[in-house]
Amino acid sequence: MGKEYEIALSYAHNDQKIADLIGTQLEFIFSDGFFMDELRPEELSRADLFRDKLKDIFRRSEYAVILYSKNYSEGKFTSVEMEQILEKENMEEESHCFIINIDDCREIDKQMKGLTYIVFHIDKTAQNHDGSGAAEQDINWKKVRDKIYDIAHNRIKKAIMLQTAEKKKDQAEYLLRVQTMCPYGNKFLWDRDYDWNILGKAFINADDGRCLTEDTSWQHFWQYIDDDFEWIKSNLNSVPDVRRRIYLNCHLSIAYKLGQMYGDLRQASGNRNLVLVSSNRNKNIEFVFNQEASERKMEDFCREYEGNCQDSADLACIISIKPKEQGHVLETVRQFLDQQGIGCCKICLFQKEMILEDADMLEVMAAYLREKMIACRTGSSCRIHLFPDTTAPLIFVLGARSVFPGTVQLYEYIQKKDTYMESLTN
User: Which pTM was predicted?
Assistant: First the structure.
């Protein structure tokens, strides 16, 4: 039995350049759940009957994308894929096919009348001398690339999400994976048990799995995540009784900002209907939130140290709460502050060797951290420099509770260099 794909791309090889553009974006979104022959040659090389293998791939893929053109309509093997897509479309109650019409070819409208889920046109700016289409050098590729990005992220991805959300009205859970890094083996995983993934692959250095690419700013990275998450949340409002299970395999700065924007767990509805999930190499840990406020108290374990600039009003806060302590974290932060010329009058170290295993403990710990950080502030002009080194669900809940009267600057730890980098500001 062959591998099942979430989505497969069908195109004529004469349209390779545009296919590569759409393929790049679909791979960002779906990772190993995306089929394109250029990316999965092993699938076809093992096939005894090439045509049957192609048909099987498109039969087993839940969604299909067609780059339709004159080249496509005349293609030898694209007709095989088209036949299978049409057959599947006729059997489905709702369409799972996206057509990108790359040269305004009208034939597809006749073949898929009433079945076309959505049709796009990619404009070309000039005609060949024979009138057959635009010469490649006359195509505005930046404009084409921008349209492809919009098609993949704002049309195809969101149309799929709406379909999966609609199906959840009579079911128990909607599952989200917020995956912005791949710390283990530098590989992004498409988890078919989750209804939606927010991937940061387009912005992450493949050699590292965590660091942003050189041409990506943290603000740009966050905007991409925020736009998707806000859109998803607003569309899930139509299914309020469905529990949200959010898998946080993400940068701690992203977890904090998501919590700050969308994680008010004190609401009587909405986000109270939430499960946060974090993972390590061995297992997933689930945090299930409920209506009851906790009566547990947290013993004070904050240690305060003199900073590097008594003239500064700023405060550095280090949160290192994890199963195994890293004793050098204070020295690493001190060195970073000095190297970057960041002045802080005081450093608060929240370092504790412990496993956070339930949502009640997350809320108690977040409440303690917030109260202590506010108490340590030096005045209205105090800026908090936050260096987190703990589990993403705790930082998510802290972000939800942290309505500080001043600015919070977040930092990410760069393991290979044993230092930090400035990331996001609240």
Answer: 0.82
